[in-house]
User: Which sequence fits this backbone?
């Protein structure tokens, strides 16, 4: 995993894991690398998929982190995120959709 | 929604809903159209996101349907699906990943 | 809990639990009684809520059992079950809705 | 959908969706209308089912919104909500039950 | 259930349930007793299993309560909790793992 | 990861992943090793936690695999599994409990 992805992907909590549980940290880094070394689908699309999954799970924290990360790394736009959340609405219903829209609007301010 | 998407997306069950609950059917068609009329992200990418969400939810039936549909509509390859499932592994763990890989291998035979 | 509810609610598996783990069985019966002894909402409405929850969780087995049980106990109709599943569609998305509709149509045949 | 339901159901976030993504908003309104136009089960019962589903999914935000909405629209009482949450306890366990009870007690103060 | 377990397990919310819905409270106490009266696995291991389940469900509140309770009752250490969360990572993915690690680090401060 | 754990843990599907996506396979093996190299909690307890998590998620396939694996590796008894499932009942409700009990009884025959 290159440095940039590393910094963007892992939050502060992971810095402590790296220090205190290095073998676990290394396994996570290895997994992350293998996951985002997709053969055909590009990294950005994979991150959009991750955003859709996190939003569908109604996970505020992970949804916010994925949005922030995608904005930083790809200059992803509001309309792109809404296109992901449209799929969340169809597959997972109104509550995760409105929750994620709220997070998006907060980040936009 | 154009005909092709309609036939691929909706299974036989929806044919009965159309006949018996037409107002509900129409609302679903309207939702489906609005969801897949994304402004920026193309339809294929949105379907990959839907696949990721269904697989993460460990939903056999919806996962299989999304895979079959994506193979028919986009000639999506095994490697592309595996790239989606890599993200499922990272965000949702081993059980939904191995379940979806099993479905993929069955479809490949 | 009166006998009829008991027989309808608990499947064959619970008969073995009763014999082999009586203290656990008694706790479950006690919980079941306290749950369905609602003060205001009647038993039938509570069972419809349980059906909605089970269908939203995409749990085939529990969804089928709740439908069968509601048909036996209350002569619940197809339209009533569809009214429950409409709510499942809005709150939980297409996959659990279509799965539950499929179960309903199978039971109707 | 009549005006009252509209105001109660959709939060502030949806006002922006209406303006910025009108075709998506219209599809959601259409879905909402088709869902709550149940043939047999009345609107209040459908909202109680929605509350049960949201609480079972441990979704604080949606649970609170459903409770507030049901109190405003139907003058629903604490005992009625507890009767819904009893079903949540049986079908989904202690954590979603205690979380929803906490929300209820906060709203009661 | 002995007093100590009772106080640790049930939060303030349950005190009101005890007073206002005593029959429901008694059923919950009965269930709790039957659950933790395991025949073979000791109480501490059962609580670790409960922690793993709550963390996998990404339930902040229940995860925090289980950690606090396990620290009070068993003087459970950080390393023991991390060993539970390792399993959460493998079975349920990065988002619930990082969320639970964050809660753990906050409790440690 | 020693050979025995490897064979027990990974099903046939993983054999193909090993051949076709070796870098992904290696990352999974690395993760699995880091997870089950707990510092304090023994491997058997970690597997019981995994069983509890899989059963709580109502995942038939993963639940069955964990039970079979625990029976082979640790000669785990029915009563031990029931002690895990008691916790599933309390934290996740009746449907995942009865589903897992059914799987257990089938495996016992």
Assistant:
């Amino acid at each position: 995993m290159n440095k940039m992805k590393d910094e963007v992907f892992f939050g502060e909590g992971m810095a402590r894991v790296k220090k205190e549980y290095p073998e676990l940290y290394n396994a996570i880094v290895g997994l992350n690398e293998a996951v985002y070394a997709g053969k055909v689908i590009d990294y950005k699309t994979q991150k959009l998929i991750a955003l859709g999954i996190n939003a569908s799970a109604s996970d505020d924290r992970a949804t916010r982190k994925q949005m922030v990360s995608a904005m930083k790394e790809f200059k992803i736009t509001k309309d792109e995120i809404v296109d992901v959340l449209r799929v969340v609405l169809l597959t997972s219903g109104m509550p995760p959709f409105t929750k994620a829209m709220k997070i998006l609007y907060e980040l936009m301010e």
Remarks:
- The interface with chain E takes residues 31-32, 34-36, 38-41, 45-46, 48-50, 52-54, 56-57, 62, 77, 79-80, 82-84, 86-92 of chain F (CB under 8 Å).
- Chain F has a mean pLDDT of 90.
